[in-house]
Amino acid sequence: MQTNGFMNVAKSSYDHARLRINHLMSTLADIEGIN
Questions:
Q1: b/e string for 6-34 if b means 16 or more Cβ within 10 A?
Q2: H helices of 1-35, where?
Q3: Is the four-CA dihedral 5, 6, 12, 15 of positive or negative sign?
Q4: Which terminus of the chain is less hemmed in, N or C, by CB atoms within 10 Å?
Q5: Largest CA distance in the chain
C-alpha cells in the first residue's frame, strides 16, 4: 500500500513543522524578554 509511505511523509513534515514552530515561539519569547 502506498498510503503508509504517504503517512510517513506527512508525519515527518508535521514533526518538522512543529519543531519550526517551537523554535519560532522560543525566539519570540526571547525578544519579548529583551523588551
A1: eeeeeeeeeeeeeeeeeeeeeeeeeeeee
A2: 3-34
A3: negative
A4: C
A5: 53
pLDDT tens digits along 1-35? 577 899 999 999 999 999 999 999 999 999 999 87
Q: How many residues does the chain have?
A: 35
Q: Which of helix, strand or coil describes residue 2?
A: coil
Q: CA 8, 10, 15 angle in degrees (round to 5)? A: 95
Cell of 16: 518538522
pLDDT of 21 reads 98
